[in-house]
Design brief:
Helix 2 runs antiparallel to helix 3, helix 2 runs parallel beside helix 4 and helix 3 runs antiparallel to helix 4. Helix content is about 90%, strand content about 0%. The longest helix is centred in the middle third of the chain and has 69 residues. The chain starts with a helix and ends in a 6-residue tail after the last helix. By secondary structure, it is mostly helical. The chain contains four helices and no strands.
């Protein structure tokens, strides 16, 4: 009878011990409650960085296309400049080689040569301006891509911080959570630097 009474007591004690252990294991540290807040903030930042990087990529493609267009227009202008120069030179050579031309023919040829020469300064100026536009578009596109790369690094840092925070919550290791905060702050710092760089370059924050 004593053994039969002792068995339920031992079973009850073991059950209470297991229940107490589970309760102690289930009690989360206070910092775990901030994991969801941190990951939510970082996820929002990562989403913004992804969208912003996509916009910058599209803008860089536009600048590249504009540079190609300006280059083509500049080349056309230089070709026109050279063609007018050749035409004027041919006429001038013809005048020099034929001193016996009648006055009317000579006046016509001289007028044509002057017309070709008179058009050249404007064509040359247009070609130079278009070349400058090409260089400006290329520089703008390069700056946009540089900012895009920085935002990509910032996005990578925030994604890594989210992963670290999630691991910290699962294994309940405070050091992983602290590392997530540090990496997240680094990511935000890179993003702010990139956006500030763009703003200083005249591109605005958004």
């Amino acid at each position: 009878m004593t053994d039969e009474t002792a068995k339920p007591s031992r079973v009850k004690a073991l059950a209470e011990k297991l229940t107490k252990h589970d309760a102690e294991a289930g009690a989360a540290p206070g910092w775990v409650g901030y994991v969801a807040l941190l990951t939510g903030i970082l996820a929002g930042i990562a989403g913004f960085l992804t969208v912003r990087a996509t916009v910058l990529t599209n803008n860089a493609i536009y600048e590249s296309n504009q540079a190609i267009l300006a280059q083509a227009q500049s080349s056309d202008a230089w070709n026109e400049y050279q063609a007018d120069s050749i035409k004027a030179r041919v006429i001038e050579t013809q005048l020099a080689a034929n001193p016996g031309l009648d006055a009317q023919s000579r006046a016509t040829l001289e007028r044509q040569a002057q017309d070709f020469r008179g058009r050249q300064p404007k064509i040359q100026s247009d070609a130079q301006n278009l070349a400058k536009d090409r260089d400006d578009h290329l520089a703008a596109g390069k700056g946009l891509l540089a900012t895009r790369d920085l935002l990509s690094y910032a996005d990578l840092a925030t994604q890594l911080a989210i992963a670290l925070a999630s691991v910290a919550a699962m294994v309940r290791v405070r050091r992983a959570f602290d590392a997530a905060i540090v990496v997240g702050v680094i990511g935000v710092g890179i993003a702010l630097y990139a956006l500030g760089r763009q703003f200083m370059a005249g591109g605005g924050f958004f």
